Amino acid sequence: MTQIPLEHGLILAAVLFALGLTGVLVRRNLIFILLSLEVMLNAAGLAFVAAGSRWQQPDGQILFLFILVVAAAEVSIGLALLLLLQRRTASLSIDDVSGMRG
To answer: Contact 51/14 with Cβ under 8 angstroms?
Structure first.
């Protein structure tokens, strides 16, 4: 069985992470920001799996499972907060959130 070189996996992870970071910094909608955070977490998980596969160790896959647990918790809490924000402001723009001080 042929393996994907470590460099290719890390380059793909870096590209995915950069796309996620760009989405977090550029987008103004909170749902898209949460999606971009998910892409960044998956990119980190891909880097762990690629490194673990290079050295024939299951550590990368175990860390990826922890990343999936953190991502699931982040999505559940984030979507609950977004529902409350939608009810309060009738918008999901990040500009409306910054005006909710006090």
So the answer is: no
